[in-house]
Amino acid sequence: MDRPSDEVLARMPLAEAVLSLWKWVTCEERLDGLWSRYRGRCYEKVIRFSLMVHLIADALLKYEGSGRRSFEKNVEAGDLETSVEAAYRKLGRLPIPLSQAFLAECAGALREAFPEWAEWELPKSLRGFSVVVFDGKAIKRVAKRLKALRGIPGGLLGGRALVAMDWSTGLALAMHAHPDGDANDVRFVAELVPIVRGQVPGPRLWLADSAFCDLDQPGRFTAEDGDRFLVRYHPKVKFHRDTKTAQRKGKTAKGQTYVEQWGWLGSQRDKRRRYVRMVTLICPEKKRDVVLATDLLDADSYPVEDLLWLYSERWGIENMFQNVTEVFGLQGLIGGTPQACIFQFAFCLLLYNMIQVVRGYIAQGQNREPDEISTEKLFDDIEQQLIAWNVMVDREVTINYLGRVPHLRSLQARLRSLLGSTWSDTWVKSPKQENHGKTPRKLARTHNSVYRILSDHSRKKQKQAARSP
User: Fold this and answer.
1) 3-class secondary structure for 376-435?
2) Whole-model pTM?
3) Pairing of strands 204-208, 130-138
4) Ranges of H-type helices in 280-337
5) Helix, strand or coil, per DSSP, at residue 447
6) Residues with Cβ within 8 Å of residue 234, at least 6 apart in sequence
7) How far apart are CA 355 and CA 321, in angstroms?
8) How far apart are CA 198 and CA 190, in angstroms?
9) 140-176: b (≥16 Cβ within 10 Å) or e
10) What's the number of CA atoms in the CB half-sphere (13 Å) around residue 329?
């Protein structure tokens, strides 16, 4: 048999769609090319990079995040021709630049396959921009499997990454990661911005929170003509109002008062100072007002309400991080080294991206807003169908049925055919609760950086070796 039965295909359209998309994104040519360019001093002997990707996919999609179970099952099937310990060591040595490139290139392929119908639309004043959202993420909950980590109190950080998200599709575009979980992710902007520029056409509007409000980041955001920025103001940078330009006051549609001012960030002696427009939303019911800084200086062309609305959309990247952590397996980290944790983070972001593509095609077929469909509920059914597919369909039959890597247009047509009529009422998001009970505040939890612990451990071993006769 060279194809699954018609009954199986009819009952598992989600699984077929994800497998087709997976073949397009993680084809051997793409993965082999990534390895050859970013492997550094690593080498392939028994475990190829493409096999490692397959092993982690099995762990997250079939075996509830258990790397050991995935490794053991693949040893039994003859796909992993080495020990479980060797697989863990290989995962723990994967270069961080490889993980970064893995996410960026695979995200670029998914962005091409994303249905244009499902892209979000900006307010009329901002439609000339491609909005890119920035935020940092610490990778937590590292298991204390390594000997040097045993007995360490508190939680462990497996690294930190600065992530860029495409607002119109909701896809994670790229990241720049560091093994030290205590690193300041703002300093990664210089490395990440050029990668994003290679994926997103300009002009771009860079959206970030107050951590990115300093005198260096605006220059990086606007290094290319046409690019602009919108960040939340931080008082660490002094604002000097331009008294020659009158401030403007008004009210939003909700009746909130706002104030617009123009002036400079930074002192007159600082060469990095920049002329900006400051928008202050008065929030008497909260501890702080919302203050935004932007180089979109024309208040008539770029109304205050549009800027305030767009900044509220920055919360989408926080929702993405929450989904990646709780839904896609980042709560249970497979490896214990920063390199392994960062690769799993990149992998979970890729899974999240794939589900957004699937959700987009389903929303298009049902003429619904994509945001009406729960990512968690949809992924739960996808996971169940993938498990059933792997039980009922032999691997060789799957390979023969999917065939060669499809062309983009044929892939898009296949996804529309599979997902256009696929629907379950259980995928609809639960309604928001108007009144939430107060959640008891947890005690503060300390976190230690795995990178720093392992570095200290290595230095101690070297000193001991030097003292021994």
Assistant:
1) HHHHHHHHHHHHHHHHHCCHHHHHHHHCCCCCHHHHHHHHHHHHCCCCCHHHECCCCCCC
2) 0.94
3) parallel
4) 304-312, 315-326
5) strand
6) 210, 211, 213, 214
7) 14
8) 14
9) bebeeebebbeeeeeebbbbbbbbbbbbbbbbbbbbb
10) 30
All residue ranges of the chain with pLDDT < 70 are 1, 433-445, 469
* Structural tokens at position 124: 């009329």
Q: Comparing C-alpha atoms, which of 424, 415, 419, 428 is closest to residue 365?
A: 419
Do 449 and 160 meet the contact criterion of CB atoms below 8 Å apart?
no
**Domain residue limits, the chain:** 6-10+20-209+314-419
Q: What tokens does 39 get?
A: 């492997």
- pLDDT value for 431: 84
Positive or negative CA dihedral for 16, 380, 351, 345?
Answer: negative
- Cα gap 341→157, rounded to integer Å: 9
The three-point CA angle 339-318-179 to 5° equals: 15
Instruction: Report d(CA 96, CA 340) in Å as an integer.
Output: 9
Tokens 């360019």 belong to residue: 37
Q: Are 359 and 415 in contact (CB under 8 A)?
A: no
In angstroms, the Cα distances linking 205 to 80, 162, 224, 310 are 46, 17, 11, 10
pLDDT the model gives residue 412: 95
Say which residue the tokens 């309604």 belong to: 431
